[in-house]
Amino acid sequence: MQHNLSVPLLGSFYISSLALLKFLVVAFSCTISVVYFENFYYKYNYPKWVVFDLFCILLLTYSICFSPRWRTNFLSVIIAFLTISMLITLTWSTNKFEGVLFVCRFLAFSLSIFTVVSIVPKEKLVEILMDSVFYSSILFCIVIIYNRYWLAIPYSNANFSPIGFVNYLGQVLNIWIPILVLSIYNRRKSKVYFLLGLASLLVLMNLLLESLTRGTILGLLAAEMIVLFILLLKTKKLPLKYLSVSVAFLCAVVTFNLMKISGLSTLKGQINSIQELNTGRENVFSNTVDMIKDNPLGVGVNNFEYTHQKYAKAGTPNASPYVSDMRILTSPYNILLKFYSELGFLGGSLFLILFGMVFIKALLNLLKGVFIDAWIFMAVFSLYFHAMFSSVFLTPVSLFFSTLLFAVVFSRESISEAKPIGMRLEWIVVPLILLLGYLSFIKTVSANLTAKGYRVGNTELVEKSFELNPHDYFTSLRLYELYLMKEGNKQQALASLERAINLYPYNIYMLIKAGEVASQLGLSDKAEEYKQRALDIYPNNPQAKLIQGVYSDIS
Length: 555
Hints:
The chain is mostly helical. It contains 22 helices and two strands. The protein folds into two domains: 2-166 and 282-431, no CATH class; 457-550, Tetratricopeptide repeat domain (Serine Threonine Protein Phosphatase 5, Tetratricopeptide repeat), CATH 1.25.40. Helix content is 73%, strand content 2%. Helix 2 packs parallel to helix 14, helix 6 packs antiparallel against helix 13 (371-387) and helix 13 runs antiparallel to helix 14. The longest helix has 34 residues, at 335-368.
């Protein structure tokens, strides 16, 4: 009798657990879309990474309760070898802290997809994805309307939306727009749901036009054309309902022109820019290829930023954009080039296989699937297209919704063909949870102390931040400025700057400043060394050339 009762009890517990999981996913999706705090220099990304890390930690903890065992298939083998490749490159990475954190997030991302696919039925998972996009997009639109039109908060590229930098919104719209259309269509019988969804879609499309995120616009329109072509071949009919994105885009064009004083001329300039495809990133791609040739084993996982300036050809017509005395380039704006440059030919090729498997799976789902699979493919194609020209998958909101999207892609077909092995998931999940939680905590608290201390001129707070995370070059750079300008201690300023240079050896700005401070201290040999290192990267830099001349009377 007890045995018979245990089955419905377990079933009831499973159903309630799924309901809780859905609530948590929707809550996290809403939170990550709008959360930001002023107490960080990067006030958008830092809080959103905390939300992403916490989401993965809770999801992996949830997986332990159900104790799914590892399943081996070709996909899991590729992920395992790619992870090993990342770990190997840590041995020669300049910034090992950022490398370890990246590996942890990659594993957490991969295992989160495995967890969701293993536990959640595919119909329920599509529902979770749709609800996450629907509610988060509505909340996002409410917040942006409130900030812009009620509070009249000025905005620029840096704070374009609650997601942050202008291009980051486009990375999310690759997923939001197709899935939102799917969500509206599936629940069109509810007038409230239908009207809220349409209003949200119209706001998002207007923001897309205003932001001029060409990768998103072209990716969505191209995805729609591919779906129409494939379905036309399959059904011999033109399925007009798949033109929803184009219709929404045209509606946005009309409303955009009505809302903007210079709407027509602005839109004309946008269309010309899209037609020209003048991204300004050809030099980044070319210089990154040179970087790959020079480093066939890679420069180290997540260490592109700390090495690329050496290959950026600064001061020449072939210079990588965003590389100068004061600016940095965090990624090559191409996800494949990032992995090839950091992991070398072997690691990059492993990622290419993994990357291609997701796309092929989405395409196969479209070819033999139903209505839902067409919209899922649109989101995947647009995301992939944009990833060739932007830092897609490298920002927290983009990565969060990609987790849900890819889980749906793999859930459309049973994974039962994978063979279970004896090792339990806890042996990997528990250490990963602890390490990711620790690294995320250290990075976040340190960044908060640095921003707060620098803003009020409190050197002790920034020193405390450095003690907590000595691998953050930005903290050392802030300490250099405080020691120099507030404390008047040039020796400490130089020491702090040299710590930053050890983490970021080809940063032009820091090399020049180190040369200047060394020259002021009478350290002519050291000043000449930093001057030469700066000129090796940027041969015609006038500020670097003046280092010895300006302070020759001191040295």
